Amino acid sequence: MGVRQWINEHSTVATLVVVVALCGAVGTMVWTLRGDSGSLRQEYYYDMQTGQLFTATYTAVPPVASPHSGGQLTGARAAVFGCGGCPKTLESMTREEAESAGAIVTWIEWAPEEVRGGSTQPASPSEARLRGMDGQFYFLVQDLDSDRPVRQTSDAGRTLTTRLPTCPDGSTPQRCTPND
User: Fold this and answer.
1) Cβ distance 138 to 152 under 8 Å?
2) Do 64 and 152 touch, CB atoms closer than 8 A?
3) pTM for the complete prediction?
4) Going residue by residue through the chain (180 aa), what tens digit of pLDDT does each one get?
5) What single DSSP character describes residue 179?
6) Of 165, 164, 161, 163, the residue nearest 152 (C-alpha)
7) Nearest to residue 151, comparing CAs of 106, 111, 101?
C-alpha cells in the first residue's frame, strides 16, 4: 500500500497528524520568541534625549517610548557588548555607567520618520515595512561617538554594524541582552 493510498483511506488520521504538526510548529515559534520568564525577549534601548539605557521587547520598531523621557518616542535599539560576560542589568545606566559595569554600547538604530509615516506611535514591523521608501524598510544607525546617522544598508552602515568592539584582553565580545 502506497502513502497516497493510505492517506486516501485514512484521511481523518492524516488530517489529525497535519494539525498536530502545525500546532507543534506554532508552539515552537512562540516558545522561541519568549525568554525564560515566558514574556517576549527583551533588548536594550538607548534614550536619545537622556542617554540612559532601558529595556523593551526586541520586536518593537524603534524609536520606542522611553520611560526616561515621559513616554516620548526617543528610544533607539542599542548594540551592547560585553567582554568576558555581560553585566546582570544595565537598566537606567548611562553609556559611561554601563562601561564601568563592563559593557560596551557601540551603536544605536531606529526607523526614520518617513518609514513610520509621521506616526506618533511605534509601528509594528509589518506596518513599518509597508511605509518604507521604495517599498523597503530600513533603519538609520549611528555610532555613539558620532553625531551623524547613516542608513543601515549603506557601506558606512554595514561597516558600523558588523564591526565588533575591541576587548582589553583581546577576546571576542559577546552581544548582551537583558535576557542573559
Assistant:
1) yes
2) no
3) 0.69
4) 787 887 778 778 667 766 666 666 665 555 555 444 455 688 999 999 999 999 998 887 888 999 998 988 899 999 999 988 899 889 999 999 999 998 999 999 998 877 666 555 555 555 555 554 445 567 899 999 888 899 998 999 999 999 888 888 888 899 999 976
5) T
6) 161
7) 111
